[in-house]
Amino acid sequence: MKERYDILCVGTALVDSLIRGFDPEPVSASGYRAESGTLSVGGEAVNEAMAAAKLGMSTGILCSLGEDAAGELVAGALRRCGVDTGAIVRSREHATPVTTMFVNADGTRRSITNGAHRYNFHPERHAERLGEARAVILGSLFRAPFDDAEVVQAVVSAVKDAGSLLIADTKLPNFRFLTLEDLKPSLGRIDCITPNEDEARYYTGRDEPEAMADVFLSYGVGSVIVKLGAKGCFYKDRETALRLPALPVHAVDATGAGDNFVAGFAAERLRGAGAAEALRFANACGALCAAAVGASAGLRDREQVLKLLEDTGE
Known about the structure:
Structural class: alpha/beta
Shape: globular
Number of helices: 10
Radius of gyration: 18 Å
């Protein structure tokens, strides 16, 4: 099958309502204050697709959007970044999910989801799209649509049968709960899995990054990246173990930093970079994202990433 994209991102698309500096003390019977309130498109697949396109990759997205104002907001933002939106599934029946996120001064955040996040669209019904990319990023395992073991297996099989590189990001569950054992038939075909530290701890029951990685590797995953936030990242495959520190930037909002990291790693691997070089680049993508409010405001292009690496001596 002819490759249409460098990278195809598959998964969740939504709108984030970002509330920064929320003051829990009411100013009236029903009123509260915050430092700022911002609308931003989001969802793992959206964040990763926009970042990949900014980094010069020919990028597509397979996701579901409602035929509503939130859906138009997401689709428009994707197109402006150069993402091909031809594979988006539009639905009159299901609304585009909207997430409320409370962003703390240190960049950490808490989120509120709702019933719209439970809609499980079916990427496995679009097998022809899944074989059109050099690399496919699943964003994210354990969240809809990848909280159904049969859906995961069908998508993984379609991607790998086409010979594509497969990278799977992860999330903590919110409505349906799966374990690594539930996904065992699929994990052995995943080239790289990219949990953050909390997710890796939850799914493996281990506390140290190398031990976490070893559990994933025991299920047959090709390589593991444990994203450690301000502590950098840890990478392990069957021959190599690497730990890289985070870049020194002032973090104001960690929303989407992991997604930008994953997109940067995938893009550099497709350009032929080794694991260490791709991880350094990915760290810079995550750092640029965290230095701005919103998942897509910080990263502009590949040249910006390379300049940050040069300026920080990485």
